[in-house]
Design a protein that fits this description.
This protein has 223 residues and is an alpha+beta fold. It has helices at residues 2-18, 53-58, 77-87, 115-129, 159-166, 198-205; strands spanning 33-34, 40-41, 67-71, 99-102, 108-111, 133-137, 144-147, 177-184, 190-196, 209-211, 214-216, 218-220.
Length: 223
């Protein structure tokens, strides 16, 4: 038993000695710095308020805003990073770059905390690096649902009007639903795929839709 305890202690001491933690000074450019182990450490701008653990948990599911930068020429992801570091100064724009990493496809991903920050950063990249790279802001697609077993008279052209007129209790308005396409399954069952706003999605999944003389089930559309 003593030998086992001694072995565990020796292993723990070895792990602690090989895992070093060093303080990294805030970046002078606003981009996350790299340690000697090539690990990015992102520090908030000077004077920024430190977040406590409860703050981190409360913002865990907040929306992230991110553009992808891809080369116009033969630049690698490392080349793109070097270009951005020399041409773009987020710290002067009071922007905190939360993520700055290379992707497997050779592009570079950046993330910030607000839509306004990313739009400002995206504009700067286009103006100062537009001859070498393209920057595109990711836009979230609205969630999709499919309406199961709809009557034949309902199609992608009239589905929205019929849904709004026959389901007034749902308080849907024009623009809440966008019909994408209709299709038939191998069993010759007609379904319609719709795109909706997040709040509309929750509402529809709790109900059935009245279409002509049929009450149709609604399911999540998995791409």
């Amino acid at each position: 038993m003593r030998n086992e305890v001694k072995e565990l202690k020796d292993t723990l001491e070895m792990l602690m000695s090989t895992t070093s933690v060093r303080q990294v000074s805030p970046s002078l450019t606003g981009f996350p710095e790299l340690t000697s182990q090539n690990t990015a450490i992102s520090t908030p701008p000077s004077g920024g308020k430190k977040k406590i653990f409860s703050d981190v948990l409360s913002t865990k599911n907040t929306e992230r805003h991110s553009p992808t930068v891809k080369p116009n020429d033969n630049k690698t992801a490392g080349g793109i990073k070097n270009l951005l570091r020399t041409k773009i100064y987020p710290i002067n724009m009071k922007i905190w770059i939360r993520t700055f990493k290379s992707l497997k496809n050779g592009n570079v991903l950046l993330e910030a905390d607000s839509k306004e920050e990313i739009e400002l950063l995206n504009t700067q990249i286009r103006e100062k690096c537009g001859d070498h790279v393209d920057a595109n802001i990711h836009k979230r697609r609205d969630p999709r649902l499919f309406i199961y077993n709809v009557p034949d008279v309902v199609n992608s052209e009239n589905a929205e009007d019929i849904i709004l007129s026959q389901n007034p209790e749902l308080n849907l308005k024009e623009g809440d639903i966008q019909t994408k396409f209709a299709f038939k399954t191998k069993r010759n069952i007609k379904d319609i795929v719709i795109e909706v706003k997040p709040q509309t999605r929750r509402q529809l999944l709790l109900n059935k839709l009245k279409l002509e003389c049929t009450k149709c089930n609604i399911y999540v559309c998995v791409d």
